[in-house]
Amino acid sequence: MVRAAIVVFLMGLASLNFVGTALAGDNNNNNKNKCTLASLKGGYGLDGQGTAFTAPPLNFPLPAQEVDIGVFTADGKGNLVGSVTINLNSITNPTVSFVATTAITGSYVVNVDCTAIITIRDDLGETLKHEGVIFDGGRVVRMIQTDAGQVFARVARSLSD
Phi then psi for 138, rounded to 5 degrees? Predict the structure, then answer.
């Protein structure tokens, strides 16, 4: 019982800290953190992981866990190009795995509040839709895949600096 009370107390503190930070950030950065397409420009390293619950165009036994890593260049005008290596492993049949490097192209839209919509197409026939947030003046982009049956989180970090 005491342990449960401590956990609830700590969760409450974490929630207050999150809300306080969010409010302070909004009040202090109202005019500082405006984003545009040019906020994403240059080379980025990309890594992600997640689980696929619906069949991709690869005819792979599902569900499957995936990790991916790669690089891309954003042109600051809403287009990107690069390559990604993926490792996909079936959860229901652990002896089945798939590793491939694929070229990617894509497009992105950036909102003034630094949220973004990113669409990536690969040579495997997939079109992956993401929603994300741009941090640190465009140096970091955190995103989640929004396609039905896909639970993936990805992070892109600028290769500059």
Answer: 95, 5
Contact 92, 22 (CB under 8 A): no
pLDDT tens sequence across 12-28: 444 444 334 443 444 34
| CB-based contacts of 123-126 (< 8 A; 24+ apart in sequence) | 124/56, 124/57, 124/58, 124/100, 125/57, 125/58, 126/56, 126/57
Question: What's the fold here for domain 37-158?
Answer: Porin (2.40.160)
In this prediction, residue 58 carries a pLDDT of 66
Given a cut of 80, is residue 34 above it in pLDDT?
yes
Tokens read off for 64: 């499957």
pLDDT of residue 32: 65
User: Residue 85 forms beta bridges with which residues?
Assistant: 69, 101
Sign of the CA dihedral running 49, 53, 54, 60: positive
DSSP states along 71-139: EEEEESSSEEEEEEEEEEEESS-TT-EEEEEEEEEEEEEE-TTSEEEEEEEETTS-EEEEEEEEEGGGT
